[in-house]
Every structure is written in structure tokens, then in C-alpha cells.
Amino acid sequence: MRRCPLIPLLGTLLVLACKPGDETSGSSDSGTSAGPTGDLETSETETLTETETDPGSTTDPETTTTDATTGSDSEDETEFPETDTDTDTTDAGPMCPNGIVEEGEECDDGILDDNGPCVSGCLNNICGDGKVWLGVEACDAGPQNGAYAGTCGEDCTTESIPKCGDGVLQEEYEACEHFDTNQDGVLCDPEQCSWGDFRYVFVTSLSFTGDLATELVDEDITGVARADAICQALAVNRLPGSYYAWLSDNNNLPTSDAATRIGGAQDSPTATYVMPQGGEPVALNWNQLVTAGPQQAIIRDESGEPLDDLPAWVWTNTGTDGHSLGQPSCDNWTLANSVGSSGLTQTGTSWTDHSNNFCNADFVHLYCIQGVEK
């Protein structure tokens, strides 16, 4: 049996029929035509030149090209920009830190310690940069140096921190400094650098008979309540707070004692008592006032002006402890007859307990003391 050769064409196996005859490819039977394709050997040669790569081949057809001049295959190569390998002209700039001070550097010790003389970036460690140079600076709060009650002064020392008690008045933050006294005699609070808690005390510019006759208050108000109303009327538009008379009656009522109405022990036990524009305090606290009396005579009125005739008489019937003496009181301060217990504008016990005056005397004043709010 005769076999025919197989010729690949465009990746497909094509079986060509062979004619019977001489096995020699160059001979043929005389009666047989070669067909329209011509000589078989010629056809095979032309076919082979057009054959594509076998699909079974591992060669990537897309990445293989034929060199037009050599006829050989070559793979596509990715093109990269040319790189300048000449490094002799490259300017690397200063090296920080390398221990050499170069252009653009303030310092270079080769260490760069933020607690040393040369910090990151080859910069000098200076006061105000927020980095503490140990052994040279005590502190450094950066932009906050010199802030009131802060952590560091402008010169990077703790001693220069502006604060309450440094003896320098910082008007933006303080009303006063230690040991200051205002015109009223109020001492500066050393903890807050503000004027301490205080209460005013004054002697009335007006004088009264024993019935406390005046047009300042309604006639229906009598006794110690009338005296309190007089004090309040004189203080209005001049002094802050509520005012009560240092005056007691003998009715044995809760309102009979001056100390109870003023309420100094409950309202302001530590407040300093001062006269308007009085300079030195009258008493440093309530307890001192009701035990030792005023350390400065109460001679200034509601406007801060001293009385003309001194010492002046004052209706009281009140002991140094602020309670009723039980002495004559012009019929509990309702009548201008008989007598009434009086004091003098002096220091010591006589400020409240001196002697009696006739109730029709019109030269006797009242003490008024700021107390609990009404």
C-alpha cells in the first residue's frame, strides 16, 4: 500500500492525495495530469514558505519579528531613557550632622541632641525654641515663655515667670500685689492678687434725735428698723450692698441685737471692714470688730468724708459684742424724750459704750455697717 506525505498549511494538517506511479517525485505516468496546482514539488516549496508557526510552539507570535535584512527572528525590547551616569558634577549639599559646619548650617557637632547646644537641622539651641539646653537653660516653653502663671520666663528661668506675688503688678491679670492697700483700706488678697473680701462701715453724715426723726424714710417705720432704713437710704448710689445700723433695742426680739441683723458672723466672717476712702482698715475681720472694736475710729461718712466735729456722738445701746446693753434707748428709739445709750467715734470700748445722751439731742449720729443682702 502506498503512503502520501502530509504537508502543514497555515497550522492545519492537509492530506494531499497522491497519484499511483513511480515513487520517484520527479516521474509521472504519461496519461495523468498534475492538476491545476502544477508540479507537486513546486507547490510544496511555496507552501512551506508561507507556513505559520505551529500552534503547539511555545514561541509568542506577538513578541517575535523577522529582521528584514537578516531574516532572523528577534524579541521586542522595552526602551528606557538614557541615564546620565556622570556623578562628578552632582551637588550633594551640606551633610547634617557630619561634625563639620558647612554652608547653610548654624552648627554641626555631629550629635544633634535637642538637649544640647546643636539641635535637629544643625540649628543653635536658643532660648525660645522649646528645647531645653541642659545645664544652660532651666526651662523653655517656646512661644509660651513669659506667659502669666506659666512654666517658664522670657529668659528661660523659672524665677522670672510673671505670677501673683512676684511684686510686679500685671494689670491684665491682677488688681493688686502683695501688701497693697487700696484707698478704702482693703488689703490685697495674696492668693488671688485681687482686692480681698471686704465690707464698708461708716458714720452717718446726718444726726438725729432719739426717735430718729428724718424725711429719708417712711414715718410708719420705727425703732431699729427705721435706723436700718436710714443707713440704706444714705448708702444708695454711693456704696454697694445692704446696710444696717449698729443699734439695739430692749424688746428681746431676734431683731433687737445689732450683730444679729448685720449677720457678720454668717455673711462674711473673714471680710475686712473699711471706711469709704478710709485708708487703714477698721477691723481685719468680724471677730476683731466685735471683740476689740475698731482699730481706726469710724469718722468717715457714706461719701468718705470725715465728720467736721470729732469725736462725734453715736446712738448705740450696743455692747462690744454686738448685743443689746439693756440701757435706756429713748423708748426703743421711738420717742425724743428720756435718755439713750451712746458711744463716741473713738477706738476701744467707748466707740459703742460711752454714756447716755438726752433723746431730744439732735447732734447724735448712727454707725452703719454692710451686712447680709436684704
**Order of helical and strand elements:** EEHEEEEEEEHEHHEHEHEEEE
The spatial strand order of the largest sheet comes to 10-16-9-11
Report the radius of gyration as a whole number of Å. Answer: 58 Å
Main β sheet profile: 4 strands, mixed
Q: Which strand-content bin applies to the residues? A: 5-15%
Total of helices: 6
Helix fraction? 10-25%
Quick recap of the structure?
With 374 residues, this protein is an alpha+beta fold. The protein has helices spanning 40-49, 223-235, 258-262, 264-267, 286-291, 330-333, and strands at 6-9, 12-15, 64-66, 73-75, 118-119, 123-124, 188-189, 194-195, 198-203, 242-245, 272-274, 313-315, 339-344, 355-358, 364-365, 367-371.
Notes on the structure:
The protein is α+β, with helices and mostly antiparallel strands and 374 residues long. Among the domains are: 110-163, no CATH class; 197-371, Roll (Mannose-Binding Protein A, Chain A), CATH 3.10.100. Helix content is 11%, strand content 15%. It is built from six helices and 16 strands. It has helices at residues 40-49, 223-235, 258-262, 264-267, 286-291, 330-333; strands at residues 6-9, 12-15, 64-66, 73-75, 118-119, 123-124, 188-189, 194-195, 198-203, 242-245, 272-274, 313-315, 339-344, 355-358, 364-365, 367-371. The strands form six sheets. A four-stranded mixed sheet has the order 10-16-9-11. Strand 1 (6-9) and strand 2 (12-15) form a beta hairpin. The longest helix is centred in the middle third of the chain and has 13 residues, at 223-235. Mean pLDDT is 81; it is low at 1-78 and 83-90.
